[in-house]
């Protein structure tokens, strides 16, 4: 789990350097899929990521998701990559 988090953090650091206005999901789809997996591992629902935004706090991202596979429901999460946690906003 620690190695997964390290790889995920490195991908996001590289993505953030290239992202315009901190919008990560247009730059690196693998990082976005990893973010959705992290949310789902925390017991929450994220069928598809709409957007990932870096916040001013270290290692914290806001993630917008489609909640259900059918495309309905939208939910926002605050994801802490350092701790490996995701909480609904």
Fold topology:
Layout: H1 2-18, H2 29-41, E1 48-54, E2 60-66, E3 74-80, E4 85-88
Antiparallel strand pairs: 1-2, 2-3, 3-4
Helix pairs in contact: 1-2
Give descriptors for this structure.
single chain, 89 residues, alpha+beta, four-stranded antiparallel beta sheet, 2 helices, 4 strands, globular
Give a brief description.
The chain is an alpha+beta fold and about 90 residues long. Helices cover about 35% and strands about 30% of the residues. It has one domain (about 1-89).
Strand content: 25-35%
Radius of gyration: 12 Å
**SS field, number of helical segments:** 2
Oligomer: single chain
End-to-end separation: 24 Å
What is the mean pLDDT? Answer: 80
How would you sum up the global shape? globular
Integer count of domains = 1
Please provide the count of β strands: 4
Q: In percent, how helical is the residue content?
A: 25-40%
Order of SSEs, N→C? Answer: HHEEEE
Unreliable segments (pLDDT under 50, ≥5 consecutive)?
17-21
The major β-sheet equals: 4 strands, antiparallel
Strand order of the largest sheet: 1-2-3-4
SS-based structural class? alpha+beta
């Amino acid at each position: 789990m620690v190695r997964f988090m390290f790889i995920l953090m490195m991908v996001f650091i590289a993505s953030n350097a290239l992202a315009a206005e901190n919008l990560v999901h247009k730059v690196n789809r693998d990082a976005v899929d990893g973010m959705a997996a992290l949310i789902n591992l925390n017991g929450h629902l994220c069928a598809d990521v709409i957007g990932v935004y870096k916040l001013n706090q270290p290692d914290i991202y806001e993630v917008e998701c489609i909640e259900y596979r059918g495309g309905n429901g939208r939910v926002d999460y605050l994801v802490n990559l350092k701790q490996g946690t995701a909480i609904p906003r």
